[in-house]
Write a sequence for this structure.
């Protein structure tokens, strides 16, 4: 039986400035985006991306992730709490970022980037799709360090079951680590391999939707559901799981449509 280490959420302090682990995980995510983006551009030079374009993409993506992720958390998952504590809406360093909100924010940011730089929307999203999962993994590690988004109680003995002492004394699934491994590393390996060869336009984006949606849907069975706007919905599924359903369906439809167009870029 394991016990959560109860990390200090502050990694280090510089005078009056405290640097939190959660913020450092976002920094790791952004650095990995740039490094992997440059590697991807070199192995697929026909896609027409250079270092400046990747740096600009990061700037747009950072804004989309932070604004969309926070608004998603506020509107989709904890509207009641933030209505009572509006001053905490901007306190992103404390955690509380919705993937689905961040995903929508990034889509808007990528559309704006494409319009400004003369690139098609799907051209942009196909390029960034393989670069996202490592950032998701870093974010889940940040959740684990923060001791948030803990798992459901285990029903059978598991050697890696973990007690989160501030919650209760029940052994639980370390679901943050499950998600870091699934939606992070496994999805990265899938998309990095898939995008190494020419694919029809929209196919890589579609694969991301299907892969993330399916892996997140499964992970939710091991994670204590977020309250959500509606709590647990029909069929006993969480808000996050129902948000994943249209992602998977849209991805499958996009993948089928992309394959009818033949191999592209």
């Amino acid at each position: 039986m394991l016990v959560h280490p109860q990390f200090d959420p502050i990694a280090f302090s510089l005078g009056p400035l405290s640097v939190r682990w959660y913020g450092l995980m976002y920094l790791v995510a952004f650095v990995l985006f740039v490094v992997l983006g440059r590697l991807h551009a070199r192995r697929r030079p026909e896609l027409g991306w250079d270092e400046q374009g990747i740096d600009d993409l990061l700037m747009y993506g950072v804004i989309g992730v932070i604004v969309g992720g926070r608004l998603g958390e506020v509107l989709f998952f904890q509207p009641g709490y933030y209505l009572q504590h509006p001053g905490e809406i901007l306190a992103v360093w404390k955690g509380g970022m919705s993937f689905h909100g961040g995903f929508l924010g990034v889509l808007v940011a990528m559309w704006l980037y494409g319009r400004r730089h003369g690139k098609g929307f799907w051209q942009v999203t196909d390029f960034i799709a393989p670069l996202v999962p490592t950032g998701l993994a870093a974010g889940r590690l940040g959740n684990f360090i923060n001791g948030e988004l803990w798992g459901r109680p285990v029903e059978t003995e598991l050697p890696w079951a973990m007690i989160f002492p501030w919650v209760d004394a029940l052994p639980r699934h370390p679901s943050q680590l499950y998600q870091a491994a699934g939606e992070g590393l496994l999805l990265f390996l899938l998309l990095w391999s898939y995008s190494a060869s020419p694919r029809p336009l929209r196919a890589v984006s579609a694969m991301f939707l299907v892969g993330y949606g399916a892996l997140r849907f499964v992970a939710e069975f091991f994670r204590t559901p977020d309250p959500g706007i509606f709590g647990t919905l029909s069929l006993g599924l969480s808000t996050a799981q129902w948000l994943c359903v249209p992602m998977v369906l849209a991805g499958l439809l996009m993948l089928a449509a992309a394959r009818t167009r033949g191999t592209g870029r």
